[in-house]
């Protein structure tokens, strides 16, 4: 039994939330060192889905001339129909609250069906241009399908694909190398930044509305994670702009940080809390340096350089302290 587990169990016992007999049973159970393989099995299943769908893509790429477009599309369509048939047959149907299922493979079959659907629609548009020059529809249609599957089958993985597709439809780059590249569209197209921030706020509003009508409230962390990253990255990208508009984005980042500080405590979501701190810290440093641009240090620049190590060490200590305090709060 780890020290953290011992303290947690001891705390429950001291608060009379468990009896002495229950406390001893917990200690005996944990002393057996039994661990679950649930995470490992889910990881292997996720890798299997990824390898299968990647294999389909490689098959299409390598045999496009020998097999033919119609045959490949027919194979994809049959696979999609088979997957969705299994999903609808074994699911409990749509429910507003979190759905549990006896089939451990259902969520991965749903994920497979959804990814294959995206490949199928993308293939149709690339080869036959079924949507004409309306290329956004090739992104929007699989996004709608993904949202339907996410809510009907209660699948967070598919919901992640759906929100990513929605961001792509707006025109946002979702790859890390595009986000932090100086050639990112956020730098070149300020209207895209406004679109990104609007999308982030819409995701937050949808989360608030979902809590009010009690609709899949466990999806909140997915929506809020996307909203946090989108709003923060768009704001930080524009805080380095030469335009005076950087002050506006500084305020947006500050407001976003305050909101996600509160909601991370409400949901007890340490991932939101950590990323909120990181983005806020980056934003504060950019803001300070933008202010220092208008200050003439003169002969005190040596003192400024000497203070920097203390500042960064203090930041690290403060970061660790904040995380420890947060873990302590959610443990209580």
TrEMBL record:
Pfam families: DUF2157. Keywords: Membrane, Transmembrane, Transmembrane helix. It comes from the Bacteria. The keyword Lipid metabolism does not apply. The keyword Transmembrane applies. Residues 13-158 form the DUF2157 domain. InterPro entries: DUF2157. The chain crosses the membrane at residues 43-61, 67-88, 108-126, 132-153, 158-180, 192-211, 218-238, 244-261, 273-292, 298-320. This is DUF2157 domain-containing protein. It comes from Flavobacterium panici.
């Amino acid at each position: 039994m780890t020290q953290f587990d011992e303290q947690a169990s001891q705390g429950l016992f001291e608060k009379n939330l468990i009896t002495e007999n229950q406390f001893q049973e917990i200690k005996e159970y944990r002393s057996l060192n039994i661990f679950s393989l649930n995470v490992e099995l889910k990881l292997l299943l996720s890798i299997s889905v990824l390898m299968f769908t990647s294999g389909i893509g490689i098959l299409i790429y390598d045999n496009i001339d020998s097999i033919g477009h119609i045959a490949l599309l027919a194979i994809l369509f049959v696979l999609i129909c088979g997957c969705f048939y299994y999903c609808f047959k074994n699911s409990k149907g749509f429910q507003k609250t979190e759905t549990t299922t006896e089939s451990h493979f259902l969520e991965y079959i749903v994920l497979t069906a959804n990814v294959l659907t995206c490949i199928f629609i993308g293939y149709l548009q690339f080869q036959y241009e079924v949507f004409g020059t309306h290329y956004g529809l090739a992104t929007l249609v699989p996004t709608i399908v993904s949202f339907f599957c996410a809510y009907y089958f209660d699948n967070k993985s598919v919901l992640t694909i759906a929100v990513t597709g929605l961001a792509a439809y707006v025109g946002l780059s979702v790859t890390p190398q595009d986000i932090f590249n100086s050639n990112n569209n956020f730098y070149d197209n300020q209207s895209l930044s406004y679109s990104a921030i609007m999308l982030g706020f819409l995701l937050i509003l949808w989360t608030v509305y979902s809590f009010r009508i009690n609709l899949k409230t466990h999806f909140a962390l997915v929506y809020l994670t996307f909203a946090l990253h989108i709003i923060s990255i768009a704001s930080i990208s524009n805080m380095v702009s030469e335009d005076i508009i950087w002050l506006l984005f500084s305020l947006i980042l500050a407001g976003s940080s305050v909101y996600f500080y509160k909601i991370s405590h409400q949901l007890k979501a340490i991932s939101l809390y950590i990323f909120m701190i990181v983005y806020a810290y980056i934003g504060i440093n950019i803001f300070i340096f933008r202010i220092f641009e208008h200050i003439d240090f003169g002969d005190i620049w040596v003192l400024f350089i000497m203070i920097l190590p203390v500042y960064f060490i203090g930041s690290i200590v403060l970061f660790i302290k904040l995380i420890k305090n947060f873990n302590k709060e959610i443990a209580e």
